[in-house]
Specification:
The chain is an all-alpha fold. The protein has helices at 2-52, 55-67, 69-85, 94-104. The termini are far apart.
């Protein structure tokens, strides 16, 4: 009876280990696939940006991405959208990118200190 119980335990443990290994393998595959999709998307975005931006503007955007990643990603998304819809007539140069960035910056509030 104890041998039967031990055999059942061993069989159950082996089943659990196989399930865990299969789940881990599926998780690894899913993570790898997701990473591949993200890399392909990033490559597509960079390709489009190379076509629509001057090297100076791309360099400024790259520097911005290091300090303000969310803002740079918003600009990239807007530029890609404009390019895909055909609403860009010319390449984005550094001055035009600066103007876009200035428009996106939140307005600073003026603070006043009054004496009572």
């Amino acid at each position: 009876m104890e041998d039967d119980l031990e055999a059942i335990r061993r069989k159950r443990m082996a089943d659990l280990q196989r399930q865990q290994a299969a789940m881990s393998e599926n998780d690894v595959r899913a993570a790898y696939q997701k990473e591949q999709e993200m890399a392909e998307r990033e490559a597509m975005i960079q390709s489009i940006l190379r076509q629509i931006m001057t090297p100076e503007a791309r360099e400024r955007l790259t520097r911005l991405k290091m300090s303000r990643k969310e803002m740079a990603e918003q600009i990239e998304a807007q530029l890609v959208s404009l390019a895909q819809s055909g609403r860009l007539q010319s390449k984005i140069d550094d001055d035009r990118l600066k103007a876009l960035l200035m428009q996106m910056q939140p307005k600073k509030r003026e603070t006043k200190i009054t004496r009572m």
